Amino acid sequence: MKKLVVLSGAGISAESGISTFRDVGGLWEGYDVKDVASPAGWFKNKELVLDFYNQRRKNVREAKPNDAHIAIAKLQKKFKVSIITQNVDDLHERAGSKTIVHLHGEIMKSRSTVYSKLIYNIKGARLNLGDKCEKGFQLRPHIVWFGEEVPEMDMAKEITEQADILLVIGTSLAVYPAASLLWYAKSNIPIYYIDPNIPDFKFESNVIHIKEKAVKGMEILCNDYLSAS
Question: Quick check: 24 pLDDT over 50?
Fold first, then answer.
């Protein structure tokens, strides 16, 4: 069974109604990203950061996996599928995909501000100031903020190196270090790039650009390119 590696980004979740991380003005739902997605923002105003992610988490809970998420999950019947996602939502999981690496964390989880290995599912509606880990330290969103290391990056590199087929969907690959993953794929494998926009990187001969949004692009990919694989 061939190994299909999926690199997914905000574009796939946008069709489920989840806001993309930021627009060109550096804002996220009206907030300056430095205030809600950085260690400095956390130390400046923890309540603001917690409230911001509580709102985002509510958005994720109300959203449903779209046909692109579901189509990727169905590919598990034909391929050994691994997903490396820049998204912090759980829509790939809810669609039925099994092997998922979240590069930028998971919004449905919290972690200790001191012991980073202490990670918990958020069961209630909110994460609040005063919610603590088992060692007595404040919990924070389990999100990789600007200026922080990406702990799953080495695993993502290893998975990408093993790919027989690479699918890039809903991401411009403009955010590093995630964008560098393309360099780790074997040079002779087919790469399918689903995005309505032309990316900054140069297309090689093995890259097929399906210039559509995620849902339509997955329909084309499955019907026209992977049906005989």
Answer: no
